[in-house]
Amino acid sequence: MIQIDRRHLRETLADLVRIPSINPDLVPGAGGEREIAEAIAARLRTTPGITVELQDAGGGRPNVIAIVGEGSGRRLMLNGHVDTVGVAGMADPFSARVEDDRLYGRGAFDMKGSLASMIVLLEAIARAGEFPGQLIATFVVDEEYASIGTQAICREIDRWRPDAALVLEPTDLNIGVAHKGFVWAEIVTRGRAAHGSDFRAGVDAIAHMGRVLVELERLGADLLARTPHRYVGPPSIHASLISGGQELSSYPEECRLQIERRTVPGETAAQVEAELQAILDRLSAEDDQFNAALTMGVVREPFEISEDAEIVRVLGRAVERELGQEPVVYGGFGWMDSALLAAAGVPTAIFGPSGEGAHALVEWSDLASLEAVTRVIARVAYDFCGM
Prior knowledge:
alpha+beta, nine-stranded mixed sheet, four-stranded antiparallel sheet, 17 strands, elongated
């Protein structure tokens, strides 16, 4: 087995954190991911035995795909995203300061620590020589917004034909086997604009939206009362954004409400649409002046893999062997690119390091756990690909 140098990992992570890679869809005008993608590609190309390509995920935003190994065994794909959220309010977001075995900075935890693991692992395997199969590392753009990066990988998944995948989102060294999905939807209520004094002519679209909000609150309570999924808990719904009206002295002609519905494994977008449409149909039947329309938006499916799946079992044995501890299997609440890989037919598990501060003003990665994660992934790569 290969040896992992914690100092090398720390320096690699520091180099990545010092490169801003803010998602431009979240922060208009941000530089995006190209600089960090080109830096990763340039570094990996200096090690013989690693093949590297840049894949345009859309709009000139590049994924990095790096491959090591020419053995006849199986293929394992690693996945991590290079983009981060914004840095407003952060102090020294790109300093990569190290204190108490923690490295601080935007993206250190979410998820450049895992990118550093991927880079160091690829280099170590290439230097070691023979590898039983093939390790395919995908450094993808845009996970924090629309996941165009992993979607681009999935559109060409037959090029690499991975037998399994690991998404290296932070898990505190636990094994992730499930997470929630989400559905975004918009409801628009239509009223009738009129002078504020003309109550006979005016129809208040905002007041009508109030009826919708009451019904959504009832639906939310019902969802939370359902039998929870054993890993991710119950489904939920919340009103995210609302706007309406023209000015103080007029009856509002329109009100718009944007909704997020978190789904659990087994639920579908069609079910969510039916729930919401039933509310509008019921309110319309009660009042012929009530006029509302539902538009479905982005859908991200929930994810679940069996604890008995081979990649989960191999990962569990690697945790036991490398860390000397019983593996903990759990489910996360936030959506991850694992759902896209699973939908493309690739058995996928989630495993990553410890730290804190994803999307927060103080973010850090635990360097000891980063070394541990890299050792575990190395063990999984050799064991799984050599089977």
